[in-house]
Amino acid sequence: AAGVIQSPRHLIKEKRETATLKCYPIPRHDTVYWYQQGPGQDPQFLISFYEKMQSDKGSIPDRFSAQQFSDYHSELNMSSLELGDSALYFCASSSLEEETQYFGPGTRLLVL
Amino acid sequence: DQQVKQNSPSLSVQEGRISILNCDYTNSMFDYFLWYKKYPAEGPTFLISISSIKDKNEDGRFTVFLNKSAKHLSLHIVPSQPGDSAVYFCAASNADKLIFGTGTRLQVFP
Questions:
Q1: Which of A88, A104, B40, B62 has the greatest number of beta carbons closer than 10 A?
Q2: Does any CB of chain B come closer than 8 Å to the CB of residue A55?
Q3: What is the DSSP letter of B18?
């Protein structure tokens, strides 16, 4: 069965650079979520989209923005990167019929 | 303020025995709970869930119990297998988002 796809899997950036992470949800899933997991921490909710509209917002810095496109894929844009942004970024998707969120493999971002 | 807590950071169990992972939460508004299994450098893999209207849900070797009055849920794995060794996160659904616990690292030894 198709799963959530995230790209890139690994990304190295320098401070003050920008990064764009992409997420392709499971087919027919209309809701996308972004989570950030720092070293030794639990995943923290950043933001979610339902039918291309932002549906909820968590602890997402103002330097980050995200959107969901007409094909339901989502992009997380991160600007003015800081060392503390180094983390695993997970995308998850779900459908209205099922509350369960299914996660992608994550993007490991390293900011030097 | 950790709304979902897993007080045992690690658990070691012999193969074939039962593994019991515990999770406590503070927000009585949570209405849906999930368990995820996570390997290093991979995304959380969904295991089992339970709605707040139930007190038990079973799927093969995995059973989740929910005690709403105690705001406590547990995951039972029986029999435990070496391939179950991973970090297990419980999560509670709050509107759209999931609130994760801090995880319990399960080690199943032969």
A1: A104
A2: yes
A3: -
Nearest chain A residue to B2 by CA distance is A42
A103/B44 Cβ within 8 A: yes
Q: What is the mean pLDDT of chain B?
A: 94
Of B46, B95, B97, the CB nearest to A102: B46
Q: Which two tokens stand for residue B35?
A: 């368990």
Q: Which pairs from B26-32 meet CB under 8 Å and 24+ separation?
A: B26/B71, B27/B3, B27/B92, B27/B94, B27/B99, B28/B68, B28/B71, B29/B94, B30/B92, B30/B93, B30/B94, B30/B99, B31/B93, B32/A99, B32/B92, B32/B93
Hey, is the C-beta of A33 within 8 angstroms of any chain B C-beta?
Answer: yes
Rounded Cα–Cα distance for residues A34 and A109 (Å): 14
- Tell me the per-residue pLDDT of A62-105, one tens digit each, with 9 for 90 and over: 999 999 999 999 999 999 999 999 999 999 999 988 879 999 99
Candidates A101, A102, A109, partner chain B, best to mutate (most B CBs within 10 A): A101
Q: Is the pLDDT of residue B1 over 80?
A: no
